[in-house]
């Protein structure tokens, strides 16, 4: 091991979940600390929150997790928005608000999420990028417990977490909503892990489906459990009759689809193993209950099947409730914006779906690219949006208009689409006939979905206000729209300087303690490389089984983004009935082509730097 590195002091704008107390590393001395650098728009960061929960429960008397919030979008820099996100996602540990990313820089974080492990004496002993590190962390924590109990430097006892009081509201961070045949509304009450049926006034509680506790139990309405459910999709009556349920629910954090019989409220699991997807892309149909899903966020009935916005792996999937099969529909898992045939398209955290009145077009809210995409005739296109790092609140021609992390869409009968422009707190409208974007309403608290009633009323799921809001009559009329020319933002990530010509890409993989590479099912490693723009790479794109690759950088291109996906299969070493594991990570590496740039680009897959 190299020289021990003292952990930088924790400083920021303020603290949450500490009862108003500012924490220092001295307050945490004697504890094992995991500093989780996250931002609340990032699906991989939300996965890590879920991975850390069992560790916090198992090692509660010796482990303290500190969330260090490191924002990407402008909206995420707002202190109130952060406080809402901490409650929304059930963050039960202290959170440091670091809007200027000072801690991010001091701890040398390079990706969302990044984990830094600090030992009981205040030294950084490991850093890990990406998700999927729970088993490695457990082994490391066990080692640190043994070492520091022997030294007398481990102090057991309660940590500094102080839970905030929970307000009394019917809804708590609702996600999506659908209209029922009886005129009532069914809403995914995400932070209360249940579904809520409301009367047509969008306020009066009719019933609740789910106990309200986080879990994944099937059964009657009062006993069933969900974990942060989001999207809802009513099945066509003839399909529902065969399937045996009326509604499909995207049970997001459980990585499941659940079926609901509306007459009784009974809940049954219909797709997903409950394990997060970490595999290879294929075009096969899979047994729906055996396949791994990844944070399904929204659902729509399109192309005679349920299409799933699979936010966790930047794809669309399909589910057939009659054949009880599921598979990939669109996307490669590369997190970026690229149009084209469905199997080649790139997306970034698709989170909202809606089908046009004629059934021909599927609208997609592609949240991390701040874009509105669409599927039609086997091809994905982009209506509004520039890419991963460009966002704002700008109306006008679609080619120059900007959104900020939209989570919902609602197709209108005239062919236009309403957009829940979440981080701008607005409802926007895109009209393909004029190719214009306008603002229908603003001043909303994180709108996450939009519903149009048969009478033409517009209901907005105003998530951070914990309610459904009815827009004023005439909001959709031309006179009711505004043209906003607001700020334009670009998230600048410092590019890596690379030299033109040959560049060696090395993905460094270190198996977790007690594991070894496993070739039981074929080559243990896989590397996929592409570039945006494609002209950036003269050679080196494609898929290989080696984690080292010779690339040739085009001297005629100033720079771009290298898209890299790597995975490695491992199993427990020297153990009977060894468990197998798959570690996978995606990178979008901004590069600048300069004569004195680097000739080697190292990336760490496991991210275990001890």
Automatic annotation (TrEMBL):
Record keywords, A-Z: Repeat
Keyword Signal set for record: no
Record domain Thioredoxin: where: 1-146
InterPro entries: 6-blade_b-propeller_TolB-like (IPR011042), NHL2_NHL_rpt_dom (IPR045302), NHL_repeat (IPR001258), Thioredoxin-like_fold (IPR012336), Thioredoxin-like_sf (IPR036249), Thioredoxin_domain (IPR013766)
CDD domains xrefs: NHL-2_like (cd14951)
Keyword Repeat among record annotations: yes
Name of the protein described by the UniProt record: NHL domain-containing thioredoxin family protein
């Amino acid at each position: 091991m190299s020289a021990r590195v003292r952990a930088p002091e924790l400083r920021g704008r303020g603290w949450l979940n500490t009862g108003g107390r500012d924490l220092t590393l001295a307050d945490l001395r004697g504890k094992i600390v995991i500093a989780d650098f996250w931002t609340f728009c990032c699906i991989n960061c939300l996965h890590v929150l879920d991975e850390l929960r069992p560790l916090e429960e198992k090692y509660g008397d010796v482990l303290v997790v500190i969330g260090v919030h490191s924002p990407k979008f402008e909206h995420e820099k707002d202190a109130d928005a952060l406080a809402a996100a901490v409650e929304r996602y059930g963050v039960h540990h202290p959170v440091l608000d670091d809007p200027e990313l000072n801690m991010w820089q001091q701890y040398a974080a390079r990706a969302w999420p990044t984990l830094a492990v600090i030992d009981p004496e205040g030294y950084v002993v490991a850093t890990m990028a990406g998700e999927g590190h729970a088993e490695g962390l457990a082994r490391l924590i066990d080692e640190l417990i043994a070492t520091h109990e022997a030294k007398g430097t481990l102090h057991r006892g309660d940590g500094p977490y102080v839970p905030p009081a929970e307000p009394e509201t019917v809804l708590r961070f609702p996600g999506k909503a659908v209209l029922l045949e009886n005129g009532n509304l069914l809403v995914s009450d995400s932070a209360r892990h249940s579904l809520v049926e409301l009367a047509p006034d969008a306020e009066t509680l009719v019933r609740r489906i789910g106990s309200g506790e986080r879990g994944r139990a099937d059964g009657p309405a009062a006993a069933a459990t969900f974990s942060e459910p989001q999207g809802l999709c009513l099945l066509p009556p003839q399909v529902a009759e065969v399937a045996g349920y009326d509604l499909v629910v995207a049970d997001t954090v459980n990585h499941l689809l659940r079926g609901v019989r509306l007459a009784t409220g009974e809940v049954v699991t219909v797709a997903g193993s409950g394990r997060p997807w970490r595999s290879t892309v294929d075009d096969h149909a899979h047994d729906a209950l055996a396949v791994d899903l990844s944070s399904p966020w929204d659902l729509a009935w399109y192309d005679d099947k349920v299409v799933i916005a699979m936010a966790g792996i930047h794809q669309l999937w399909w589910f057939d409730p009659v054949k009880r099969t599921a598979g990939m529909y669109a996307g490669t898992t590369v997190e970026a914006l690229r149009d084209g045939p469905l199997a080649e398209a790139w997306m970034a955290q698709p989170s909202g779906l809606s089908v046009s009145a004629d059934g021909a077009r599927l609208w997609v809210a592609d949240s991390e690219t701040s874009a509105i995409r669409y599927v039609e005739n086997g091809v994905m296109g982009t209506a509004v949006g520039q890419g991963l790092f460009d966002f704002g609140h700008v109306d006008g021609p679609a080619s120059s208009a900007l959104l900020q992390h939209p989570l919902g869409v609602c197709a209108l009968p005239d062919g236009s689409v309403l957009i829940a422009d979440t981080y701008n707190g607005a409802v926007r409208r895109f009209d393909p006939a004029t190719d214009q974007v306008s603002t229908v309403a603003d001043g909303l608290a994180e709108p996450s979905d939009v519903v149009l009633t048969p009478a033409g009323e517009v209901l907005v799921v105003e998530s951070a206000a914990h309610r459904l809001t009815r827009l004023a009559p005439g909001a959709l009329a031309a006179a009711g729209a505004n043209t906003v020319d607001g700020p334009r933002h670009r998230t600048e990530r410092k590019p890596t300087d690379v030299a033109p010509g040959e560049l060696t890409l090395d993905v460094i993989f270190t198996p977790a303690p007690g594991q070894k590479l496993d070739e039981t099912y074929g080559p243990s490693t896989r590397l996929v490389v592409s570039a945006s723009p494609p002209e950036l790479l003269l050679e080196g794109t494609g898929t290989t089984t080696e984690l080292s690759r010779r690339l040739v950088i085009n001297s005629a291109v100033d720079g771009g983004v290298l898209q890299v996906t790597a995975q490695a299969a491992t199993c427990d070493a020297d153990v009977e009935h060894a468990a197998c594991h798959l570690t996978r990570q995606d990178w979008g590496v901004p590069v600048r082509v300069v004569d004195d740039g680097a000739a080697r680009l190292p990336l760490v897959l496991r991210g275990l730097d001890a």
